Amino acid sequence: MSLICDSTAGGLDCDQVDVRGFGPFGEMKQLNSTDEEGKMLFVFHPLLLDDKSPYPVMVFSHGSTGEWAMYEDALKRYVSHGFVVVFPHIKSPQDDTRSLTLDPMGGFTAKGFNYAQSANVDVANPLHGFLDLSNVVLVGHSMGATSTIMAAHKLATGSVKLAYAQHPGVCGPYGPPPCIGPGPLCNTWMPADFEDVASKVPVILSTATNDGAFWPKPGTANHELGCFSKSTNSSKFKDETAFVEFSEAVCSDDGKGGRYDRTWSNGGHDCPMKSGSPETPWVVVAAKLYAQLGGNKASKCHAMLWGSDGDSLDKDPAAENVIVNSPAISFVA
Description:
Mean pLDDT: 91
Structural class: alpha/beta
CATH class: Alpha Beta
Helix content: 10-25%
Shape: globular
Number of helices: 7
CATH topology: Rossmann fold
Order of helices and strands: EEEHEHEHEHEHEEEHHE
Largest sheet: 9 strands, mixed
Number of strands: 11
CATH architecture: 3-Layer(aba) Sandwich
Radius of gyration: 18 Å
């Protein structure tokens, strides 16, 4: 596998790379840095950075008790497809694994976004000049998915091109923890928040039939479908939104989630953690489309995400239920 590719590689369409496997940018390197509050922040980038063309940025927000190792396979794939991934923490890598370290309001996602802005102009930072700040995608899982929605809601900037929420906390006003608060209501995110985000950028929400994070299966998936439907019931904010529920068969726990003295499920709610997760390729497709191809409606990535051909999201055999609110255009094969 090539460790680096030419400056046009980031713009390769989805029929020119293996979106279900590793891309042409090769191995991943980790950079430990600090955010605006002096708290530890991780950055994952291609082993050899090529300054001929800056790299789009993905801010990846982890779930409650999460650590980067849970998402290692997915992160390697995102980097291999030409993204610099910023992985922020709420407090620290260790503190964030504790159940009471919570931030669904978008604060730590925003810190990841702010870090990319400052790193790119800091001559002392190894990332100086390597980041394409006009093309940022926000991706998150569980609590981090809620944070992604709320951060996209607050970051009124043209540089954010996509919000991809994997298994977010169900919508309020009486949603389960982690709660937005403070106050008497246990809010997570509201349909109005999602609707506002959808008025600014494409938004994708994914879940799994056997996601049992909040209710026994398929209760969580059904509720998240209801949240999505409420959020997209306005035709004004409906286009370029998608809901996908992956099947229990592809999101079953394979018993391989673990590191050192920690073990975790990688099925159901934690399907994004699986090695070769069925969810990861669609993050790649969507991120490439909006951060590398400028949303090109004639691209294969666009057809895969919003079309109805056999290799599209709509026809993915790994999905139990898909709702694709496509842009009103004709797709090019």
